[in-house]
Amino acid sequence: MKTESLPSYNWFVGKDAKHWSRAFFKDIGLCDMLCNNMCEAFNAAILAARDKPIITMMEMIRNYMMTRPARKMAELEKLFLIACFKFVEKVKHKSGYYYPQYSGNFTYQVRARREEQFVIDINDRTCGFNKWQLIGIPCVHGMTALLSTNHNPMDFIHLRKQRGRPKKKRNLQSDEIIIGNTTKLRRNYVVVRCRKSGKVGHNRVTCDRRGRGTDSVATTEGRSQSVGGTQADGGSQPVGRSQSVPGLQAEHQDGQPRGGKRT
pTM of the entire structure? Predict the structure, then answer.
């Protein structure tokens, strides 16, 4: 390329090899396409929307991109196996020009007539030519090794499958509460409300106990007032005379104060 066109050579050298060389492609996408057919197909699909106003154009492109994955998935469910069968039959025909040599542990050395040699590992589904990993379908070298051991090539086609069991439950919204799940605690905890007093923070079993605690505090305050002989309104009481205090009878029903030690 440097001899034919120096500007083209300099342009390729300035680019990362993973963008224009299949040898550096990643095998995550399982695609070895090197041309710009995808860009041309996209430009042809949005051709009708390009002469529209900006908002209308963006809305048409959005609708196209939204419906395209579902439409293509429905088409692939019908044509996937047919396309795979055609590709496998084509590769089978080409595999007759290669010679496999078994080296043990499900590994082979496949040699072509032009003295090209590649290592095939059936267990790992890898090929030294890197095409098997790149497209997810056995290449001509892998097909030669599979046919020599009477393996079915369709069993070695990569199918994307998620780990574990298939998911059955739908995705919950952020504000949804899981009801009926006894294995996990709820994030929105139940508020405890008393049936007697209607207050929050205790139940009816501990309601009397909490009420007595409140009454005892009031009784103590009443005692201090009676002993001091002063009232909030400025009146006075004799020191030796007892004063009726609310809750005092409830405190001394059993003959001695609550909380005191019975002898």
Answer: 0.40
